[in-house]
Design goal:
Largest sheet of chain A: 5 strands, antiparallel
Number of domains of chain B: 2
Number of strands of chain B: 0
CATH topology of the largest domain in chain A: MetI-like fold
Largest sheet of chain B: none
Largest interface: A-B, 46 and 49 residues
Number of domains of chain A: 2
Number of helices of chain B: 16
Order of helices and strands of chain B: HHHHHHHHHHHHHHHH
Strand content of chain A: 15-25%
Order of helices and strands of chain A: HHHHEEEEEEEHHEEEEHHHHHHHHHH
Distance between the termini of chain B: 23 Å
Number of strands of chain A: 11
Distance between the termini of chain A: 23 Å
Number of helices of chain A: 16
Structural class of chain A: alpha+beta
CATH class of the largest domain in chain A: Mainly Alpha
Oligomer: heterodimer
CATH superfamily of the largest domain in chain B: MetI-like
C-alpha cells in the first residue's frame, strides 16, 4: 500500500490515477445506460432514420447559429380511420405538422410507414408548405414503397419534386423548404392518405433530420458518435488492462522461474525469450488475424503472447539480485522447497514491478488492438474505437471533412493510454529511485 | 590500431555482402580468424550471437511457412477455383463448346493451377523449396508486380525499399537529432520548462497512434487548409524535370514526415534524458564533483561518455528498424513503401510476397538486435565479463 501512496505523491501518478478513475466511472455509466447500443452497432435500419454524417450541435451553433436545425421526431397530430362501403374498404389519413422556425434546411426527411394490409392499398403523400403550396410527393401502391422513406433518396419523391419545381440537381428537401433563397418559416404539413380494400392498419413516424446532432454528431450511417465513443470505453479499458495483465502475469512467472532456477534452465529460457523478441509482432499478428478471424478474447490473448517479454526481463533481473538476500538464503537453509520460497519470499518483492509492467503495457496493448480493428481484422461484433476509425477511413471521413467522426475515438484511445502511461511512469520512478528527482 | 583494422575489415565485409557474396565470405572468414587469434572469448561470444540470430530467422520462417501450409492454402485453393470459374463463364463460346463437360473442365484447370503453385502438397514438403527461395528473395509473386512488370519478389521489394527509407529513415534521423538535443537540454536543466515539455512530448509519443495523428493532419492541412496533398508520393503523372520532381516529392513528403517526427521525437528526448540523469547519479560523478572538477569536464567525461553506448545503439536500432516503415501510417498516407506493400500482399493473399516480406522484416529486426548486442559487447566492457 505504501507503493500506492507514493504513486499518488508523484504528480504524474496522481493525474494518471485521477484520469483512470474518471474513465472508469464513465465506463460504468456507459455499461449501465448505453449497454444496449452495443448490439445495434451493425443495425443500419435502426440508425437510418438519424441524420447521416452531421456535425455536433455545439459546432453548428458556433459556426452557423441561425442555420442550425435540430433533429425532430414527430408523432402524427391527427389520425383518422374511416370504414368505407360497410367495411369493404378502409381510408386512413395521417397528418403531421412540422412547426418550423429554423433558418437552415433539414438534412433529410424520413417517413416511416408500417402498413398492415390484406391487399396492397394506394398511398398518397402530400407535402404542404407554410405558403400553402402543396406537392404530391408519392402516389403509388403500398407494395412499391419502402418502410423507411427518405425524401432525398427515394426516386419517386425526387422525380415528383423536380417536376413540381422545374429544378433538378438539388436535394428535394432543399427545394421543398426554400422559396428562392429564403427558407420558409411556419408550419409544414405532411398528409398521408391510404385507401385499401379490407382492413388497413398504419403505424407511422416522421423524422426531420437536422443538420447537427447531439454532442458529437453522427457517422455516415447515422450512428450517434457520442454513444459509440462511450460504448467503446469499457471495451478499450478491458482490452488494454486484460492484455497487459495476462502478459505481465505470464512474464512475471517466466522471469521468476528463469531467474530462480538459474543454470541451464535459465539459459534455455533466455534463448527462447530472445527468439520471441526477434519476431516482428504486428506483421505476424496481422497474418494470424487474417487466417483465424479471431474473437475479442483470442485477440487479447494473441497480443499478450507478443508482449510479455519486457516483464520477464525486468522480473528476472530482480530475482537474480533477490536470490542472494539473507532471508532467501535462510529459508533455503531451513529446507523450504523452491516453489515455497519463490511464492512466499521472492514473489511479493517482485509484485510492484509487475504492477508497473501492467500499467506500462496498457498503451501498447490498446494501440495494437486499435490497429488491428483499423485494418478491419478485429472482432466485427465488438464496437471498438478501432472499428469507428476503420469505418471513418473506409467511408472517407478525412476526404469529406467529417472531423467529428475521427477525433473522439482517437482521443479516447490516447486518454486511456495516457492515464496508464502516467501511472506506469510514476510507478517506475517510485520503484527505481535513481530516476527520482533530488 | 587493431581496433581500426577490425572495424575497417568489418565495413568492407558488410559492403561486399551486397556486392559480391563469395568475396564477402572470404572477408568474413578473415575477420573471424583474426578475432579468434586476438580475442578468443569475445569472438566466440559474437559468433554465438550470430548463430542465435540465424536460428531465430529460421524459426520465424518455418512458423510462417507452416501457417501458410494449412489455412492459407485452403483459402488460396478456393480463390483459384472461383477465379477459374469466372474466367470460363466469361467466355460463352467456350462454355457452349464444352457443353455438359464445363464442370469437369473447370476442375481440371483449377487442379493444374493448384499443382503449379504447390498447394496440393503438405507444407513440410514445400518447406525446403520455400526456404531456399525466400532467403535469396527469388520466389515469384502471384498477383503483385513491380512497376517494371517483374514478378520477382526481390525486384518488388527493392523498388519499395528506397521509398520507405526516404520517408522513415529521414524521419528517424530528424526525430533522433531533435530528440537527443532536447533530452540533453532537459537533463542539464532539470525541472525547467524544456524538461517538462520533454515529459509531455514523451507521454504524447506513448499514447497517440501515429496513424491517427496522420489522419488528423490530413484533415487539417490537406482538406481544411488545402496546403498539402492528402497522400501519395508524387503527383500523377510525376513531373519529368529533376528539380520539379524533387520539389514535388518534398511537397508530398512534408505531411507524413511532420507526423512521424511529431510523434517520435518525444520518446527520443525522454530516453536520452533518463540515460543522462541516470548517469549523473553514478558514484564516480559524485566523486568527480567532490574532487572539484569543472562542471563542463564532468558533463563531458563522466556523464556523456558512459551514456554514449546506449544512445548510439538506440540510433542504430531505430535506423535499421525504419527500413520496414509502418504499415498503417503508410496506408493512411498512401505512401507506396514496404508497409503498404505488405498490406497489398495480405489483401490479395499473395503468399510469396507475404513470405518474402515477413522474412525481410524479421531479417531487419534480427540484424538490428545483432548490431545492438555486438555494439554493447564491444563498447561496454562490463558485458564482456
Amino acid at each position: 500500500m505504501e507503493v500506492v501512496r507514493e504513486l499518488l505523491s508523484q504528480r504524474a501518478g496522481a493525474f494518471g490515477a485521477a484520469l483512470f478513475v474518471v474513465l472508469l466511472l464513465l465506463a460504468l455509466y456507459s455499461m449501465s445506460s448505453l449497454g444496449g447500443y452495443a448490439r445495434l452497432w451493425h443495425n443500419t435500419t435502426y440508425w437510418s432514420v438519424y441524420p447521416s454524417a452531421v456535425p455536433p450541435e455545439w459546432f453548428g451553433k458556433l459556426l452557423y447559429p441561425d442555420k442550425v436545425v435540430p433533429t425532430l421526431f414527430l408523432d402524427p397530430t391527427n389520425v383518422t380511420k374511416k370504414s368505407l362501403f360497410n367495411g369493404a374498404a378502409t381510408n386512413v389519413t395521417v397528418v403531421y405538422e412540422i412547426p418550423y422556425s429554423y433558418g437552415g434546411v433539414p438534412n433529410d426527411i424520413k417517413l416511416i410507414l408500417n402498413i398492415k394490409y390484406e391487399s396492397a392499398p394506394g398511398v398518397k403523400v402530400v407535402f404542404i408548405r407554410p405558403d400553402g403550396k402543396a406537392v404530391t410527393v408519392i402516389r403509388d401502391s403500398a407494395k412499391n414503397i419502402p418502410t423507411i422513406i427518405s425524401f432525398n433518396n427515394f426516386d419517386q419523391i425526387k422525380n415528383n419534386v423536380y417536376t413540381w419545381s422545374r429544378v433538378s440537381g438539388v436535394q428535394p428537401v432543399e427545394l421543398l423548404f426554400k422559396e428562392g433563397d429564403e427558407v420558409l418559416k411556419g408550419t409544414y404539413k405532411v398528409v398521408v392518405t391510404i385507401i385499401g380494400l379490407g382492413e388497413v392498419d398504419v403505424r407511422s413516424e416522421l423524422v426531420v433530420d437536422g443538420n447537427v446532432y447531439g454532442l458529437m454528431g453522427t457517422d455516415i450511417f447515422g450512428r450517434d458518435i457520442f454513444v459509440y465513443t462511450m460504448v467503446g470505453l469499457p471495451y478499450g479499458l478491458l482490452i488494454g488492462v486484460l492484455t497487459s495483465l495476462i502478459a505481465a502475469v505470464w512474464g512475471t512467472g517466466y522471469g521468476l522461474v528463469s531467474g530462480y532456477a538459474g543454470g541451464k534452465v535459465d539459459e534455455v529460457m533466455q534463448r527462447i525469450l530472445e527468439i520471441w523478441y526477434s519476431i516482428p509482432a504486428l506483421p505476424i499478428l496481422i497474418m494470424l488475424a487474417i487466417i483465424y478471424k479471431p474473437t475479442l478474447m483470442l485477440i487479447i490473448l494473441l497480443i499478450a503472447v507478443f508482449s510479455w517479454m519486457g516483464a520477464a526481463k525486468v522480473v528476472r533481473s530482480m530475482v537474480l539480485s533477490l536470490k542472494n538476500e539473507g532471508y532467501v538464503m535462510a529459508a533455503k537453509a531451513a529446507g523450504a522447497p523452491s516453489t515455497w520460497i519463490m511464492i512466499k519470499h521472492v514473489l511479493p518483492q517482485v509484485l510492484p514491478y509487475t504492477a508497473a509492467q501492467v500499467a506500462l503495457g496498457v498503451p501498447g496493448a490498446i494501440l495494437t488492438e486499435v490497429s488491428l480493428d483499423f485494418l478491419g481484422l478485429g472482432d466485427p461484433n465488438v464496437p471498438t474505437w478501432g472499428w469507428m476509425l476503420h469505418d471513418a477511413q473506409v467511408y472517407g471521413a478525412s476526404v469529406n471533412g467529417y472531423w467529428w467522426w475521427i477525433t473522439p475515438p482517437g482521443l479516447m484511445v490516447a486518454l486511456v493510454a495516457l492515464s496508464f502511461a502516467m501511472m506506469g511512469y510514476a510507478l517506475d520512478v517510485v520503484l527505481n529511485p535513481r530516476l527520482r528527482e533530488v | 590500431m587493431l581496433k581500426f583494422v577490425v572495424l575497417s575489415l568489418l565495413l568492407i565485409a558488410s559492403i561486399l555482402t551486397f556486392l559480391n557474396p563469395p568475396l564477402a565470405a572470404v572477408a568474413w572468414l578473415a575477420l573471424v580468424a583474426l578475432g579468434l587469434k586476438k580475442d578468443r572469448a569475445l569472438t566466440l561470444k559474437i559468433l554465438t550471437r550470430v548463430a542465435n540470430a540465424a536460428l531465430v530467422l529460421l524459426a520465424v520462417l518455418v512458423i510462417t511457412v507452416a501457417m501458410f501450409g494449412g489455412t492459407i492454402a485452403e483459402i488460396k485453393k478456393e480463390m483459384i477455383i472461383s477465379e477459374v470459374k469466372r474466367w470460363v463463364m466469361s467466355q460463352p463460346q467456350l462454355v457452349q463448346k464444352l457443353g455438359p463437360k464445363v464442370k469437369e473442365f473447370i476442375a481440371q484447370q483449377a487442379e493444374r493451377l493448384i499443382k503449379a503453385e504447390g498447394l496440393d502438397r503438405p507444407w513440410y514438403e514445400n518447406l525446403p523449396y520455400y526456404l531456399s527461395t525466400v532467403v535469396t528473395l527469388e520466389l515469384r509473386s502471384q498477383v503483385l508486380r513491380s512497376n517494371t512488370g517483374s514478378q520477382l519478389v526481390r525486384d518488388i521489394t527493392m523498388e519499395r525499399l528506397p521509398r520507405t527509407v526516404l520517408l522513415f529513415t529521414t524521419a528517424t534521423i530528424i526525430s533522433a537529432v531533435a530528440g537527443i538535443l532536447l533530452g540533453l537540454v532537459a537533463a542539464r536543466k532539470r525541472g525547467s520548462f524544456v524538461d517538462k515539455f520533454v515529459t509531455f512530448a514523451a507521454l504524447i509519443s506513448a499514447s497517440f497512434p501515429m496513424w491517427w495523428i496522420g489522419m488528423i493532419m490530413i484533415q487539417i492541412f490537406s482538406y481544411g487548409l488545402n496546403l498539402f496533398p492528402s497522400g501519395g508520393m508524387t503527383s500523377v503523372p510525376p513531373p519529368k524535370e529533376l528539380l520539379a520532381y524533387l520539389s514535388d516529392l518534398l511537397y508530398h513528403m512534408a505531411l507524413p514526415l511532420t507526423t512521424i517526427v511529431l510523434v517520435s521525437f518525444g520518446g527520443w528526448a525522454y530516453v536520452t534524458r533518463s540515460i543522462l540523469v541516470g548517469a549523473t547519479k553514478e558514484d564516480y560523478v559524485l566523486a568527480a564533483k567532490a574532487r572539484g572538477l569543472a562542471e563542463r569536464v564532468i558533463l563531458l567525461r563522466h556523464v556523456l561518455r558512459p551514456s554514449l553506448p546506449p544512445i548510439l545503439t538506440m540510433i542504430a536500432l531505430s535506423l535499421v528498424a525504419s527500413l520496414t516503415g509502418a504499415i498503417i501510417t503508410e496506408i493512411v498516407f498512401n505512401w507506396p513503401g514496404m508497409g503498404l506493400l505488405y498490406w497489398e500482399a495480405i489483401e490479395t493473399l499473395d503468399v510469396p510476397v507475404i513470405l518474402g516480406l515477413t522474412y525481410v522484416f524479421t531479417l531487419v529486426f534480427v540484424i538490428a538486435m545483432l548490431i545492438l548486442d555486438i555494439l554493447y559487447i564491444i563498447l561496454d566492457p562490463r558485458v564482456r565479463g
